[in-house]
Amino acid sequence: MTRRQALRFGAVAAGAAGLDVHGAAVAKVSAVAGRERERSFDDGWLFLRGDATGAEAPAFDDSSWRTLDLPHDGTIEDLPYATSDDDGGATSFPSLLVPEEPDPAWPAPPDAIGPFDPGRSQNGGSIGYTVGGTGWYRKHFEVAEPADGRESHMELRFDGV
Question: What are the angstrom distances between the C-alpha of 64 and each of 9, 55, 58?
Fold first, then answer.
């Protein structure tokens, strides 16, 4: 197992332990005859790593943003400048996962691996050497008014935010 594979496995295991799989972001729709009362809001979100001035405005142009599904955590995505090789791992020497004095003939591990960069992590080991920063999530959806003229009521429930 490469170092990257071990990190991904650890992140998936840690995430699965902390997530309520059944409690996803859900849009609750008021009771209207023949319509669904709940639907998942997990699919079709837009994401931008970094800041975007004015992104809170509904008319903001987010056409260049990446589409993704929830759950998602931008702080544990691979950094754009992180080192990887053909198999997606930091090195082909799996013994670098074991804390011991490495053989001088082995390559040194890269400065940044996946989402981890000890040199740029503002809070170091207390946040697992992730870089963090600002990220934006947006979702486009339409709300249909009830055909019978009644007032509609909608609630958004975000579990695990």
Answer: 30, 12, 15
